[in-house]
């Protein structure tokens, strides 16, 4: 029988047939009568057990079969006598593709700490935890494209090198031109990094939104899904310097349509993962349960990973305004006891501690907050006609039709808004925040010619993967994390 990935072999190969399996050795166990090799090829969390009778393989061959070595094994697929697996392969021949010196191979058959694995990010996909995460990440990305395709969206690729800074969403990475073999030099002989991109100042994109709006104003519904860069020099567990963002943008959508889309989108994608990644999710669920046991009782989470995902897809998200949320936060226990690290009041940008309090303690459901103060949001958000009014009749400042979706364990997972479609209001706002309308003349053309109501949002893909896998650090849900202190690759 020809070579099959282990995932397919476990599902479809008939007992009694001769099969070939290829993969990396996870463990080798020798007993009096037999040698047991657990082989994994990355196609599934499940290993295939390979059995060789004692003395069947030459001693020199057996010595080379160590954790991390890569093998091809041919043998008969038989029912397994041992507990833990239904079938196993009775070895008839083995090819060693590559050995792995046990003295040097860093992955041993035990649970390594995530911190240690971050230091060997090039090898960590060979662990159960990371291969599960990467398969789930793949499934989620596939589900994203499928969702938009099913709902009439077009995939639009927006520039990665761009002259616009979108919104001043964060510190940017500057792009310079440099001939590596003959770099331009400054007068004192050092490499001159100040050379611009063909005479223009350019950055790596912080968001594809402004270009995405151009697409929506022609194609109706578009989405981007690409790498995004922010020079976040903070070491949080929620920020990367390079992350992937999903940004749908829809003509003829207002704020409420935008919220409905965001909620339906998130639930559909999570449902897809539950249906298609059952083995990997069950593995991560177990892993998390073991980890929880090591915590103090009061710090243990009430729901397991699978329960949490089920809960999110089967409950309506709570929707309320920023102004209502501030009132709740001001009257909350931590605010009264001064336990929030950052004080809350109308006009402040919410920190993840506030967002998580609303979601995890107050509502115990995902939350969509709307109508944020204009001053803390980007210039392109549509202005509300009336200022916010507080619970006791206080009149606050102007607000915009913004929405942030907040998730348990994460805080902000989506930021979005209805966009300002009125040319005069938009240019006036640009002047106020110091953006030269001339610099974004192409953007303003969509308001000059056939302007239309439209809305969109940005979802950080890694925050979604973080939520679905139940991991705690964003560096652990992207194959090659780019963040301060992760300078490999
Ligand atoms: P935060 O408040 O968490 O810093 P933000 O408000 O700066 O996020 P937006 O500009 O609204 O982020 O970007 C849209 C989405 O992109 C966010 O809701 C979040 O999911 C994601 N995101 C933003 N910055 C990062 C980052 N540095 N790493 C990973 N994801 C990010
Ligand atoms: Mg930010
Ligand atoms: Mg934010
Ligand atoms: Mg935001």
From TrEMBL:
<dbReference type="Pfam" id="PF00152">
    <property type="entry name" value="tRNA-synt_2"/>
</dbReference>
<dbReference type="InterPro" id="IPR045864">
    <property type="entry name" value="aa-tRNA-synth_II/BPL/LPL"/>
</dbReference>
<comment type="similarity">
    <text>Belongs to the class-II aminoacyl-tRNA synthetase family.</text>
</comment>
<dbReference type="InterPro" id="IPR004522">
    <property type="entry name" value="Asn-tRNA-ligase"/>
</dbReference>
<keyword id="KW-0067">ATP-binding</keyword>
<feature type="domain" description="Aminoacyl-transfer RNA synthetases class-II family profile">
    <location>
        <begin position="134"/>
        <end position="479"/>
    </location>
</feature>
<dbReference type="Pfam" id="PF01336">
    <property type="entry name" value="tRNA_anti-codon"/>
</dbReference>
<dbReference type="GO" id="GO:0006421">
    <property type="term" value="P:asparaginyl-tRNA aminoacylation"/>
</dbReference>
<comment type="subunit">
    <text>Homodimer.</text>
</comment>
<keyword id="KW-0547">Nucleotide-binding</keyword>
<dbReference type="GO" id="GO:0004816">
    <property type="term" value="F:asparagine-tRNA ligase activity"/>
</dbReference>
<keyword id="KW-0648">Protein biosynthesis</keyword>
<dbReference type="GO" id="GO:0003676">
    <property type="term" value="F:nucleic acid binding"/>
</dbReference>
<keyword id="KW-0030">Aminoacyl-tRNA synthetase</keyword>
<dbReference type="GO" id="GO:0005737">
    <property type="term" value="C:cytoplasm"/>
</dbReference>
<dbReference type="InterPro" id="IPR004365">
    <property type="entry name" value="NA-bd_OB_tRNA"/>
</dbReference>
<dbReference type="InterPro" id="IPR012340">
    <property type="entry name" value="NA-bd_OB-fold"/>
</dbReference>
<keyword id="KW-0436">Ligase</keyword>
<dbReference type="InterPro" id="IPR004364">
    <property type="entry name" value="Aa-tRNA-synt_II"/>
</dbReference>
<keyword id="KW-0963">Cytoplasm</keyword>
<dbReference type="InterPro" id="IPR002312">
    <property type="entry name" value="Asp/Asn-tRNA-synth_IIb"/>
</dbReference>
<dbReference type="GO" id="GO:0005524">
    <property type="term" value="F:ATP binding"/>
</dbReference>
<protein>
    <recommendedName>
        <fullName>Asparagine--tRNA ligase</fullName>
        <ecNumber>6.1.1.22</ecNumber>
    </recommendedName>
</protein>
<keyword id="KW-0175">Coiled coil</keyword>
<feature type="coiled-coil region">
    <location>
        <begin position="274"/>
        <end position="309"/>
    </location>
</feature>
<dbReference type="InterPro" id="IPR006195">
    <property type="entry name" value="aa-tRNA-synth_II"/>
</dbReference>
